[in-house]
Design brief:
Helices cover about 75% and strands about 0% of the residues. It is mainly α.
């Protein structure tokens, strides 16, 4: 979006307002459909990943009972956990990409609302979502019920944070299994697994936040929010 050509400052007087409204509505419905499809796809990916996690943990329990946790069980457990973690990291990458795509859809629809208000300024009081395509505008669109910028609880309870938490736990289990297999003391194994899991959690948050903030540093809004009084 930062590289696209800016829209004309004024509408073409030769185009009737009804035609402009129809074109804008068509684009709006297209964005809504694309956003819905993208969200549905990533939710399906998350569901598949959770099914894999459940099946993997159940298979470890059954294999442990069947083999009496003999010498072959640690290798089987590490293989299963490694595969699940790999799928989890790939799912996390997709969730991160979708969050940026969703931001693009929100910005695009905010621009369309600006065009609606340009056609009929009287509709402005009825729009709960923002018509400004900048950071405050997206925060209002994402969280407009409380009259404040986006609530931190929305970020904490997002799909991205959920996947990061699950992957951090899986990495901790994998590190615990590896260190126990190497014969390290229990406290050392526990410390390595906790540090590894928390490090993955913090690193994932930093990477996601850096990507989000980096977008806003490069982006130039066409319809910035008015200065706060």
């Amino acid at each position: 979006m930062p590289d696209e050509e800016p829209a004309p400052a004024r509408p073409n007087p030769e185009v009737p307002p009804a035609v402009r409204a129809q074109l804008l509505a068509t684009e709006h419905w297209s964005l809504l459909a694309s956003r819905s499809t993208t969200q549905g796809e990533v939710l399906t990916r998350i569901s598949m990943f959770l099914y894999l996690v459940s099946a993997g943990l159940v298979s470890l329990a059954l294999a442990g009972q069947a083999t009496q946790f003999d010498e072959g069980f640690p290798g089987f457990a590490l293989t299963v956990l490694g595969i699940i973690l790999l799928v989890g990291v790939l799912t996390q990458v997709r969730v991160t990409n979708v969050s940026m795509e969703d931001l693009a859809y929100v910005l695009a629809m905010n621009r369309l609302r600006a065009a609606y208000v340009e056609l009929d300024p009287g509709v402005a009081p009825y729009l709960m979502a923002s018509r400004f395509d900048d950071l405050p505008g997206t925060q209002t669109t994402y969280y407009f019920l409380g009259g404040k910028p986006r609530n931190f609880s929305q970020v904490l309870g997002s799909s991205m944070m959920f996947i990061i938490a699950v992957n951090s736990t899986l990495l901790g289990l994998l590190l615990a299994g590896i260190t126990l297999g190497l014969g390290l003391p229990l406290l050392v194994c526990l410390a390595i697994s906790v540090v590894g899991g928390m490090g993955f959690l913090a690193g994932s948050i930093v990477v996601g936040g850096t990507r989000y903030l980096g977008f806003w540093r490069r982006y130039t809004p066409l319809f910035p929010s008015p200065p706060a009084e």
